[in-house]
Amino acid sequence: MHPAKRIEITTDSIELAKILDGLHKAGVTEHTVIRNVVSKSRRIEATELDNVYVIAFCLPDKVKTVVENIRPILNKFGGACYISDALEIRSVRCVASL
After folding, report:
1. Distances (CA, A) of 96 to 20, 68, 89, 90, 92
2. Residue 10 in contact with residue 47, Cβ under 8 Å?
3. How far apart are CA 40 and CA 90, in angstroms?
4. Quick check: pTM over 0.85?
5. Which GO terms describe its biological process (predicted)?
């Protein structure tokens, strides 16, 4: 197992391209996007189905660059980003191809 960082972002779907561009510029090229997310926080309740949830993983040394790229977008357009520790299990043997 290898240490990794889990990046979870909830934001308006209109900002999705900017968020993904920020991740890619930080070297985080793989992600998952879940559309039509409903969320609620202390500040705002987003009940419309135009929010997205982005989850990505990166090496710990890329987190600073991710934050530098994502924070301005969230500050301008809103949203939330959480970064936490994770462990990655790298699988190099694909038995499906045997």
Report:
1. 31, 40, 18, 16, 12
2. no
3. 34
4. no
5. regulation of nitrogen utilization
